[in-house]
Amino acid sequence: MQMPHLRRALASTVLLATVTAVTAAPPGAHANGSTVAPRATAGATAADTSVAVDVRAGLATVPDTAIGVNHAIWDAELGTPAVSDLLKNAGVGMVRYPGGSYADIYHWRDHTAPGGYVAPNTDFDTFMAGARRTGAQPMIIANYGTGTAQEAADWVRYANVTKGYGAKYWTIGNENYGNGHYGTAWEADDHADKSPKEYAANVVAYAAAMKAVDPTIKIGAVLTTPGNWPDGIVGAGDSGTWNQEVLARAGSAIDFVDVHWYPGGSTAAEALTKPEQIEDAVYLLRQQLDSRIGISLTETNVGVGPNTQPGALFLADVYSGLLEQGVFTVQWWNVHNGIGTVSTVAGQTDYGDFGLLSSGNCTADGTVCEPPLNTPFAPYHALSLIGSFAKPGDQLVQAGSDNALVSAHASRKANGDLAVLLVNKDPDHEHTVALNYHGWTPAGQVPTVDSFTNGSAGITRTTAGTAGIQVLPAYGTSVVTLHPAAAETGLPKAPGRPVITTVSDRTAEISWPAATPGTKPIAKYEVYRQHGGASEQLGETTGTSITVRNLEPGRRYTINVLARDTAGGLSRASLPLTFTTTSPAVAPCSVRLRDTNDWGNGFVGDLEITNNGTAPVNGWTLTFTWPTHWQTVGSGWNATWEQTGTTVRVTSDGTLAPGASTTAGFVGAYSGPNVLPGIFTLNGNVCTTR
Predict the structure, then answer these.
(1) What span, in angstroms and rounded, lies between the C-alpha atoms of 323 and 60?
(2) What b/e readout covers 150-187, taking b as 16+ CB neighbours within 10 angstroms?
(3) Where is the signal peptide (predicted)?
(4) Is the pTM of this model over 0.90?
(5) d(CA 141, CA 260)
(6) Contact indicator for 578, 570 with CB cutoff of 8 Å
(7) Can the peptide bond before residue 226 be classed as cis, meaning omega within 30 degrees of 0?
(8) Could you report the per-residue pLDDT of 310-331, keeping only the tens digit for each?
(9) Quick one: DSSP state of residue 339?
(10) CA-CA distance, 398 to 601, in Å (whole number)?
(11) How far is the C-alpha of 464 from the C-alpha of 449, rounded, in Å?
C-alpha cells in the first residue's frame, strides 16, 4: 500500500507559527494524543506543507548493520585510515568487499582478479583492518562466477578460524542474473548452465561447504528487486522467474537475500520520485520469502546528479525508506568510483562520480578535475545525517507528508527524543512545514536542526523554528531533534510482534506476546492501523488477541499493538504486522487475473470472469483499481477497456449465463513494482478473486 498523502486527514487543520521565534510555548495537547503547533502572532508565515508523525505507528528497529557502503579492490584508498575514519564519522556499520562484479572474478587467496585491475594494498586483511577501524561488520561476496564452493569455504576458514575475524555475512556472487541467461551479460559466469536452477544448486553446495567450516555464518543468495530487470521474466527452459527458481531450490539453505536497486530516472526530478516505490517493492519481495529470511540491499545509487544534491536527497530518502521496511543493511555504491560525464546540476558541478568521496582524478583531456582526493561529495553528508538520524536501537516510526516534494521520516531515540528527517526535493523553493505529533508531546524548547543544503561544504547545526513549524531550504535535507515534554519512565515495554491467526475479507484475528509491565499494571492493549503518520485505532482489549472487524476486502493493512497501564501510560509500539484481507469466499462472480507473459516493464494480462449466480448477466462492467500510479493498461481485447487515474473499467454487451465464464485480455505497463490488483467488481458486486 502506498503511504497515503495526508491531505484528507489534515485538510481541516491550518497551522501557523512564527518562523523567526527563538523560543516556543509548549504545543497544545489533544485528548487523542495528538499535538499541533500554537497559533501564530502577527508576522507569522503560513505553512504550505503538513507533516504528521505518529509514534504509535512503529516500523523497524535500526540494526547495527543498517548504514552500509561498498569497497572495491580497484580502489587504492580501500582500508586507509583517512577513509576508515570518514566512514566511522558517518556512522557506517557495514562494509562490502571485494566490490560488485569484481567479486565474480576475484580469488582471495592470491588477491587476483583476472581480467580486472587490482590496486595495491587492497587485500582481504587490509580490508578487515579498515573495517575494524571503522567499527563496521564486513559483508563478503564469495566468487560464484569463476570460483568454487571449496574456495569459498577456505575463505571462511581463513577469516574466522585462522584470523578470528568473526565475519558473519557472506553472499554467493553478485548480479548473477546478468550472466547472459536473459539476453544481457555483464557478470562473469564460467558455468555451462547459466540458469537460476544452476545458481540455486551451487548456492546449496556453497552454503553446505562454508557452514561446515563455521556454522554461525549467514549465507545470502542473489535475487532481483521487484520492479527491476529481470523481475517478472521467465527465461528459456525455466518454469519461473529468477527469484522463484532460486528460492524454490535454495530457500532452505540461505539466511538472507541480496538485492540491488538502481531505479533510474531521466531527470533528477523523476529520479527523486522513485523512493515512493520502496514500500511496494519490499512488500512483494517479502511475499516470496520465508519469514526467517532477511533482506539486504547492497547496491543503490541515483542516475542523475550522483555526487551533487540529487544524490544526497535520494540517499537520505532511500536509506530511511528501506530501513523502515526492515531491510537490515543498505549500501551505497561506492566509496570511490572516479570521474564520469561532467555536468551542472542545480548550479553545482557534478562529476558523474558514483562515489561518496572524490577520487581526485581528471577527465581524459585534463580539462576538468575533481576536488582533492577523499573530499566528501554531497551524498557523504547525507549519509552522515542518516547515521545520526537512524542509530542502532532507534525505533523508526511512520511519518507522512501532504506535499509530494517533501518526504518525511522519523525515529524515536532510546532517551525519548524524536528525530524528524525532512527532505525537500524542490530545487527552487523552500517549504514551511507544519509538524503534527500523534502519541507524543514535544517539549517547549527550540529544536536542534542539522541541515545539509545545496552546495554546502558540510552539515550545519543550529537551533531554529519551533516544534510545530520548520522552514526547509530548497533542495535541502534537515534532521529536527526534539525532546519529549515529560520523561518516559516507568512505562510498559512494547508488546511482541503481532501475528495473524486468520484473515478473511472483512475480519482479521490477531494475537501478540504480552508486554512486560512498568511501574503500573497493564490495563489494556490498543491496536492501531498505520495511516500516513496519523494512525487510526482499530480496537482494544484486556487480552493478547483481538478480532478486528469492518475491514475492506483485498486491502493491505499494517498494524501495531501498544500497551496502556492503569495510570494511562502508553508503551512504545510493537513491531508492525502487515497483512492483506482476502476477497469474499462466496460472491455472485469470480475473477482470475494471470500475468501470462512478462518482459520486465510490461506484461500480457489474462482475465477470466465467471457468473456464479443463478440468473444471466446481460451486459457487464468489470472494475478494478491498480495499487500504484505507475501501472497502466495500454490496450485490451474481447471487451472495451478504459482507464481513468488508477481505475480500470472493462465493459461488454455480451451475456454471461449462470455458471458461464468469459475471458478478456490486455497489455499492461509498469515502471515500478507490479502489484497486481486483488479486488474486482462486476456490475457493482465484489467478486471472489481466484
Answers:
(1) 7
(2) ebbbbbbebbbeeeebebbbbbbbbbbbbbebbeeeeb
(3) 1-24
(4) yes
(5) 14
(6) no
(7) no
(8) 999 999 999 999 999 999 999 9
(9) -
(10) 30
(11) 6
